[in-house]
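agent> Task received from the user: take the single chain below, predict its 3D structure, and emit structure tokens. No templates, no multimer pairing.
agent> Plan: (1) validate residues, (2) run structure prediction, (3) serialize to tokens, (4) report one or two observations.
agent> Step 1 OK, no nonstandard residues flagged.
tool_call: predict_structure(input=
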Amino acid sequence: MRLRRAALVAVATCLLPALAACGSGGDSINAGDVVPARQDRQFIQDKESTLALPIGTLQIHAGAPRDTVAAKDTHELTAQQAPSGLTYLPITWRYDQASTQVYAHFLQTTALPVVTLHSGDAAYHLPMPVPDQGTESFYVLVKKSTAHPSLSVDFDGVSQSVDLTTGKRRSGRAAGLYGLSLRKPKAKKCNGSFTWSKVARATQTCKLTGPILLPYAGGKWAEPGHEWLVLSVRTVLTTYTQAGASLGSAGTYYALGVDGSYRLNGKRPAAVIAGGGTCPDVATGTCGFDNALVFDAAAAHGRPSTLKVVEHYRMQLTQGWAGFNGKKRQTVTETAHLHVPAPGRG
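)
tool_result: status=success, residues=346
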């Protein structure tokens, strides 16, 4: 939403579908209409509030309601007078999605925020600003009320609100979004045991990122009183060589694909989010497997845990020597028991 591009009154944005007369009276103005302000950062010195969302942060500055708006304060340089019973509420806001990109791999959501401005017993829907496009200032024509105006944001069924006069926030189930670290979690070499066939040798790397505690992951909010424990596991199989039945015989295999399953202390993940692993990688001849995992944090009990990873590789023989007579195609299973440290907050 770029409000500065809208005409001042004649095509003022109708933000409340229930008001059938909105925008239909030529140059008339109605509750819920928006007047773009003169400057993008016009009310930046007013009361500041912040609402954190799984996919971004909405920073809001709201000023005191006013019945008149001077021409010099509007984008169209036209003075405004509020109709009887209505008043103009000045708002500057900014929507920043960049701050949450460190957790994007774990979110798996297409949900969008729904913003509602409340004044007394009236409610006005506001379209979200364009992400990462800077600040934007405007006036919303609202019903006069002795109650403080407030802004509520619903994301995927969980709503939180902020009092625009006091800045007091009610975050509810979204409380865990506040105070998350903005530093990208580092991937570390896996610590644990890997079991292949007794007659095979493999070269493989393994990295683990996390675990981190989040209130929203895998396209869902955690249940009340719970959190999600999220982590990602990346393995890359470089070589696989199998010994033959006769002395000195052996064969090398190329991975055509891989499937896996996971258990954290015996518990299945609530969600498995496919990552950027490539198998097979025709350029390197390797097989990469990269998944993000979402568990109920109760599975870890706040302590170090064991993640059991079972990977099934579909193999094709590429070379054999010394009379190797192994299968040309086969499925090979690897089992890993990885040490997962106690979860930390993002």
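agent> Step 4: summary for the user.
The helical segments are 104-107.
agent> Done.
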